[in-house]
Automatic annotation (TrEMBL):
<protein>
    <recommendedName>
        <fullName>Actin-like ATPase domain-containing protein</fullName>
    </recommendedName>
</protein>
<dbReference type="InterPro" id="IPR013126">
    <property type="entry name" value="Hsp_70_fam"/>
</dbReference>
<dbReference type="InterPro" id="IPR043129">
    <property type="entry name" value="ATPase_NBD"/>
</dbReference>
<keyword id="KW-0547">Nucleotide-binding</keyword>
<dbReference type="Pfam" id="PF00012">
    <property type="entry name" value="HSP70"/>
</dbReference>
<keyword id="KW-0067">ATP-binding</keyword>
<dbReference type="GO" id="GO:0005524">
    <property type="term" value="F:ATP binding"/>
</dbReference>
<dbReference type="GO" id="GO:0140662">
    <property type="term" value="F:ATP-dependent protein folding chaperone"/>
</dbReference>
């Protein structure tokens, strides 16, 4: 039957290739009774009109329909990518049972999770691509597993690394190690430490959008301009590379000690790149490969008639500037203008709660989602407000800390150094890099994943080629590691995670609420050790709280991103503000409350004013509705020659209690540029002052705190006008 259907479809491709059909008018070659309203054959209506919104999915061109009918398998199986950037693709399923053609109005949802898991020479940053046709079945989302340079080995994720073929890595690393070999106090393995942060005025610019650097188009195989560019698995082990791309976008983030800032600067300078353009190159290669895989599987016709909706996840603890830089890099990479951003813990929560059977959930329950990844552990507590469709509200302000799984690898590295001594350890890293890679990979794959605090199991870490050192436990090419040694590595990190969870639970209880369960997601969230320790510790004070580990916990973030894109609207009804948001404005001077140093004369209104007075429109911890903008009220006086553009600074404060005027505790996060040219003339009020006529405009800026960032609009008398652009500091 399938062969007959495919043969018929192939015949239709040739016999009807030149059939012309008007847009929005289905075409069939046989006579049949049609629905007068839709124009579709009545005997097909039951297959294609399951609800009122699906009529327009019927093919508008019968030859095109035949092509998709012929190409569509019962289930799509694409391939994947590697390094903590996860990508999921939700493809509208085309099956033989339904003659539904994907038109330009249909779309593929692509979720991208830029993760940060790294472990010395062992890089685990990954990007994954997946797809599904069932938004109400989160476990049905499939994952792409084939990547350039992957040697035909299937990988769920691809390394988030890129190289432009400059500066061999080994020479740079050898110099660093030799410089540090004699330093017994610090014993740094690179030019920076894990706690060193980059300043915004570093030698390389963080924003391609502020520099004249050209952004060259690249694909998976490179182009004329980026002939030596390679990404993901294509990067060779002996090459210097740009890694930890996610952290490079945020100057406030710390870099791991194995990443050389000098090497990054040199690569960028030699390649005439900056961080944002390098990230855009990587994302473009990733996006091009995704489209290539779709085209290879379903044909060029399918890809050309489908639109793409990208959902990008960002860390909850990131600055608004870093979120904006990520969004701009994605747009530069050709991912479109309507990119949705969502915070990583929120995406994880969406997937985790969707994956739990609804008979185990009830309206009013509170769940704390613990997104334990490589670099950070983020917590957020949601209350269920509706089950179908799922709708949530944030109960308590989210928290997070740098205590992810990567710090276990860092602690392991320090343990090995302490066991065999500084000199032997530097020799290991310098002269036997593959030996160190073997040891690191063994710790990653076995010790880290299988450690059980209730077990006395010991381990033998492979270190082939190293001299015997029985006193240190190094014999026959293996380093002995006892259960207590492993416990000493895990205990500090687990303690930080447990402390974070305990504080989050208490913050919910302080509001008179209770937590029903903890949901562990993320790579570290899959750890049985973490789940056991959490359950044991939390049950002491709150025995009713369970610990859940949903399926696909490692890819929960990217799967949640896909579900968010499929939903098409916010699943979270309200959020808690992470900081105070406001503007600095002038007020009528009052000597009882204003100091003399803020006093100035207003020439327009001919009165004394107090400058730099804060008006806080959103307070830290306040509940902010997702679908209602916060309105900032302004009135501005302009000269008659005014060019109808205005700028306002958005001010934030991280403290619990915000000050009443600008000071060192406040900072500007962005400048909002408002285009007022579309505001009708009657809205401008002409005034007369001692210095002549001037114009006054009363307007409002609407700001929405979305999951992955901020958005703005301009309003006059409740009507939206013009455009508001933002420039982040």
């Amino acid at each position: 039957l399938v062969s007959v259907a495919n043969g018929a479809a192939a015949w239709l491709l040739t016999s009807h290739a030149n059939t012309h059909v008007k847009p929005n008018q289905p075409h069939f070659t046989h006579g049949d009774t049609r629905d007068s309203r839709t124009g579709y054959p009545l005997h097909l209506r039951s297959h294609v009109t399951g609800d009122e919104g699906t009529h327009d999915r019927i093919s508008l061109h019968f030859a095109t329909l035949a092509a998709c009918f012929y190409l569509a398998p019962d289930d799509f199986h694409l391939s994947t990518i590697d390094d903590n950037i996860l990508i999921s693709i939700q493809v509208l399923r085309i099956t033989r049972a339904t003659l539904i053609m994907a038109r330009p109005t249909d779309h593929v949802v692509i979720g991208i999770d830029f993760g940060t898991t790294f472990s010395g020479f062992v890089h685990n940053d990954r990007v994954a691509v997946s797809y599904s046709a069932k938004p109400d079945a989160p476990d049905d989302i499939k994952v792409i597993k084939s990547w350039p340079g992957g040697n035909n080995v299937l990988h769920d994720k691809v390394p988030s690394e890129i190289t432009y073929g400059v500066m061999p890595r080994l020479a740079d690393e050898r110099k660093v190690l030799e410089d540090d070999a004699g330093d017994s106090q610090h014993n740094k393995l690179n030019t920076i430490t894990p706690t060193r942060k980059r300043k915004a005025d570093d030698a390389f610019d963080l924003s391609v959008f502020k520099t004249p650097t050209s952004t060259r188009k690249a694909n998976a195989s490179g182009t004329k301009d980026n002939a030596q560019m390679r990404w993901g698995f294509e990067v060779r082990t002996d090459e210097s590379r740009l890694s930890c791309l996610k952290l490079l976008l945020d100057p406030d983030q710390s870099l791991p000690e194995f990443v050389s800032l000098d090497s990054i600067k040199q690569q960028l300078a030699t390649s005439e790149k900056n961080v944002s353009s390098a990230v855009a190159d990587y994302l473009r290669a990733l996006f091009d490969h995704t489209k290539e895989m779709l085209q290879r599987q379903y044909g060029e016709l399918f890809v050309s008639t489908i639109s793409f909706r990208v959902v990008l996840t960002v860390p909850a603890v990131w600055s608004d500037a870093a979120k904006d830089a990520t969004l701009k890099a994605a747009k530069t990479a050709g991912m479109g203008e309507n990119i949705i951003t969502i915070s990583e813990p929120e995406a994880a929560a969406v997937y985790a709660l969707q994956s739990i059977q609804h008979n185990r959930l009830s309206v009013g329950q509170n769940f704390t989602v613990i997104d334990a990844g490589g670099g950070t552990v983020d917590l957020i507590t949601y209350a269920i407000r509706q089950l179908t469709p799922l709708r949530l509200e944030e109960v308590a302000r989210g928290t997070g800390e740098c205590c992810g799984a990567v710090f276990l690898n860092t602690a392991f590295e320090k343990w090995v150094q302490k066991k065999i001594g500084n000199k032997a350890f530097h020799s290991l890293r310098l002269d036997h890099p593959k030996t160190w890679l073997t040891a690191s990979q063994f710790f990653e794959d076995y010790v880290k994943r299988k450690f059980d605090p209730a077990s006395d199991e010991s381990w033998s870490i492979p270190l082939p080629g190293l001299d015997q050192n029985p006193a240190a436990g190094l014999e026959g090419g293996y380093l002995f590691m006892s259960a207590s040694d492993v416990e000493s590595i895990f205990e500090p990190i687990l303690g930080k995670v447990i402390s974070l969870v305990d504080r989050q639970i208490r913050s919910v209880q302080d509001l008179g609420e209770t937590v029903s369960a903890l949901i562990l997601v993320g790579g570290f969230g899959q750890s049985a050790c973490l789940a056991k320790c959490l359950h044991w510790q939390i049950s002491k004070s709150s025995p009713s709280i369970g610990v859940l580990q949903p399926l696909n916990a490692w890819t929960a973030v990217v799967r949640g991103a896909v579900l968010r894109g499929l939903e098409g609207q916010e699943l979270v009804l309200s959020r808690k503000a992470r900081r105070h948001y406001g503007i600095a404005a002038s007020q009528d001077f009052d000597e009882r409350i204003h100091s003399a140093d803020v006093k100035y004369w207003d020439h327009f209104q001919q009165c004394w004013k107090a400058k730099d007075q804060m008006q806080w429109y959103i307070k830290k911890g306040e509940t902010v509705p997702s679908d209602e903008p916060i309105l900032f009220s302004f009135y501005r006086c302009f000269s008659m020659a005014f060019n109808k553009h205005a700028s306002n600074e958005l001010i934030v404060c991280e403290d619990d209690d915000a000050p009443s005027q600008l000071n060192a505790r406040t900072r500007t996060i962005c400048v909002m540029q408002s285009d007022l040219t579309d505001v009708p003339a009657p809205k401008w009020h002409q005034k007369h002052g001692l210095n002549g006529p001037y114009k006054r405009l009363n307007y409002k800026l609407g700001m929405q705190i979305e999951s992955g960032g901020l958005s703005f609009d301009l309003r006059v008398d409740d009507v939206t006008y013009g455009k508001v652009t933002t420039t982040f500091d």
